[in-house]
Amino acid sequence: MKETTALVLAGPAPDLNQIYGDLTVVGVPIGPPANKEILSGNDQHVPYLPLEIVSLIAENLDDIEDVKNLRHTCKRFYNTGLAAYSMFEGCRAIYPRSASFLKFFALINLGLVLQGFVRKIVLVSEGLCVNDNGYEWAWRQVGLGSCKEQDLQIIRYVNHHHDKDINLNGAFLTAGGYRRALTALFRKLEKLRVVEVRPLRRAEHNPYWHGPEVLKHLSFYRPDLDFRDVYYGGWQYDTTHLRVTAVFDEYTGGWVAPPGAGPQAGFKEDLEAARAASAPTVEVHEVV
Fold this sequence. Notes:
Helix content: 25-40%
Order of helices and strands: HHEEHHHEHEEHHHHEHHEEEEEHE
Structural class: alpha/beta
Number of domains: 2
Low-confidence stretches: 1-40
Distance between the termini: 54 Å
Number of strands: 12
Number of helices: 13
Shape: globular
Largest sheet: 4 strands, parallel
Strand order of the largest sheet: 3-4-6-12
Radius of gyration: 24 Å
């Protein structure tokens, strides 16, 4: 190891609160782990090095093999890695958005070892969609009360961007993209055991679109205001033509498909197809 590397590890113990604060790396806290067993000895501060510093150390190593052997520096380095990887074991919600999948793939690709620590994931079953009865009807279910002109402008603005987002990104759900992404994810997570499925919670939003932040400017906004009926719901598409072919009949309350339409699928069918293709032993737990 070159001399510059040794200098990084030398000196008095740093103030960890100043170094870490509330920083996270792709959603994972990089502060000191809670494992008290590794907090003793003259190398007790070694595992607290931020990943950025570890990267700088790696750049100054003489042999690439030393990077792989870094975990053998001391047992505390090794145990700290285990504690950090265990954070990936579960409770990571994946929304039906391509950006949500891309973020999760980027996370586990930071280190291939992370894939082996994922035992459980959470799938949210509702994505962006237009209410079958239209925006006006859906907003009445929210209970607008007295609206100011500024509120109406905000509502029209969010409705417009919601519709625009569906036009730009909706094909991920209605052209088989969600099924393919889920299949690829299951193949990567070889030790996945449980998939928890849940709908959006009250006042919860799908991330990665602009609407939720703008809605906060409504004069009657409350954190518990429920917009699920306005902007979110399930999806259905034709698995043969990879597009929407069935239309909702408001009189019968059912879906009508034209002659020649293929089998219809939604979240449940996509999940089962991905599971059958790459993770047949995974258990699915539904949460209401």
